[in-house]
C-alpha cells in the first residue's frame, strides 16, 4: 500500500467508481442486459437479483460470465461459438448494447448527491476522474445521458474495463487514473460502493468513501474513511453507517477535505 505523507493534504481530485456509485446500474441495468443477451444466444441462463448479488463477488462482466460457465456443471457451449473465449466476447458485446440502450433511454438516474458534488468540484477547480471495471462505452453512455453531451470533457481521466489487465480488487485501474491525472493519491478522494472497489482504491493509497448498495450493505468495509447510504443532499441527509462525518449531513468538498486530513 502507498504510504501517505504528513504534508498538508489538500483535495485536488475526486475519483468516482461507476456501477453502484454514480448510479444503481447493477440489478436493473447490467443484470437484465446479461439476461437479454443470454436469451438471444439461446442459453437458459437467467440471473435473478439474488443470484446476481452473489455473482458480483467477481468484478467484470466477462470474468463473471466465465466464472459462471466454469461453475455450471451442465453448461454446453452453443454450437455457433468457436470456444468459451469467443462465446464470452460475443455475448458480452450484445449485453453491452442492451445496457447502453437502457442507459441512453435514461432508465437509470444518478444516485443522490452525485451531480451536486460533481458540479461543486468543477466550480472549485477540483479535478474529476473515473475508475471502473465496466467498459468505457458504458461510462460514456451513462455520463452523457445524465449530465449532458459535453459532460465527458469534465473528466480528466476515465480508466475503465480492459485498459488494465487486473480488475478490482487489484489497484491497477486506480493507479492508471492517478497517473493520467498526475496527482499523488494523498490529494485525491475515491468514492466507491463495495468491498472490491474499496480494496482497489485503498491499495492505490486513496482515502475512500463508500456509498453502499443493497448487495454491499453487509460487506466488510472497515478500510473506508466513511460509509454512507448515499452522498446526501442539503434537503436529504445521508445516514452514516461507519466513520466520522464531522457534523456534515451531505458529502461536499469541505467534508472531503476533512476526511483527507484525518486519514
Ligand atoms: C463493475 C463491474 C462490472 C459491471 C458490468 O464493478 O464489476 O462488471 O457489473 O460491466 P465496479 P461490464 O463498479 O467495481 O467497477 O459487463 O462492462 O464488465
TrEMBL record:
<keyword id="KW-0378">Hydrolase</keyword>
<dbReference type="InterPro" id="IPR044999">
    <property type="entry name" value="CbbY-like"/>
</dbReference>
<dbReference type="Pfam" id="PF00702">
    <property type="entry name" value="Hydrolase"/>
</dbReference>
<protein>
    <submittedName>
        <fullName>HAD-IA family hydrolase</fullName>
    </submittedName>
</protein>
<dbReference type="InterPro" id="IPR006439">
    <property type="entry name" value="HAD-SF_hydro_IA"/>
</dbReference>
<dbReference type="InterPro" id="IPR023214">
    <property type="entry name" value="HAD_sf"/>
</dbReference>
<dbReference type="InterPro" id="IPR036412">
    <property type="entry name" value="HAD-like_sf"/>
</dbReference>
<dbReference type="InterPro" id="IPR023198">
    <property type="entry name" value="PGP-like_dom2"/>
</dbReference>
<dbReference type="GO" id="GO:0016787">
    <property type="term" value="F:hydrolase activity"/>
</dbReference>
Amino acid at each position: 500500500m502507498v504510504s501517505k505523507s504528513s504534508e498538508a493534504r489538500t483535495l485536488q481530485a475526486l475519483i468516482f467508481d461507476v456501477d453502484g456509485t454514480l448510479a444503481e446500474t447493477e440489478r436493473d441495468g447490467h443484470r437484465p442486459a446479461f439476461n437479454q443477451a443470454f436469451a438471444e444466444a439461446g442459453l437458459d441462463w437467467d440471473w435473478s437479483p439474488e443470484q446476481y448479488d452473489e455473482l458480483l463477488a467477481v468484478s467484470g462482466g466477462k470474468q463473471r460470465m466465465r466464472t459462471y460457465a466454469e461453475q455450471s456443471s451442465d453448461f454446453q457451449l452453443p454450437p455457433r461459438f468457436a470456444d468459451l473465449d469467443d462465446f464470452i466476447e460475443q455475448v458480452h458485446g450484445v449485453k453491452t448494447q442492451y445496457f447502453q440502450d437502457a442507459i441512453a433511454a435514461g432508465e437509470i438516474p444518478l444516485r443522490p448527491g452525485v451531480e451536486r458534488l460533481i458540479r461543486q468540484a468543477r466550480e472549485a477547480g477540483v479535478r474529476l476522474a473515473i475508475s471502473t471495471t465496466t467498459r468505457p462505452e458504458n461510462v460514456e453512455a451513462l455520463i452523457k445521458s445524465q449530465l449532458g453531451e459535453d459532460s465527458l470533457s469534465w473528466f480528466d481521466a476515465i480508466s475503465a474495463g480492459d485498459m488494465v489487465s487486473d480488475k478490482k480488487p487489484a489497484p491497477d485501474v486506480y493507479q492508471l487514473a492517478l497517473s493520467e491525472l498526475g496527482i499523488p493519491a494523498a490529494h485525491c478522494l475515491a468514492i466507491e460502493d463495495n468491498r472490491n472497489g474499496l480494496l482497489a482504491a485503498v491499495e492505490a493509497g486513496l482515502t475512500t468513501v463508500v456509498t453502499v448498495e443493497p448487495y454491499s450493505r453487509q460487506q466488510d468495509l472497515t478500510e473506508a474513511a466513511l460509509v454512507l447510504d448515499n452522498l446526501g443532499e442539503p434537503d436529504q441527509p445521508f445516514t452514516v453507517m461507519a466513520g466520522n462525518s464531522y457534523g456534515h449531513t451531505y458529502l461536499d468538498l469541505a467534508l472531503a477535505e476533512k476526511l483527507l486530513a484525518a486519514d
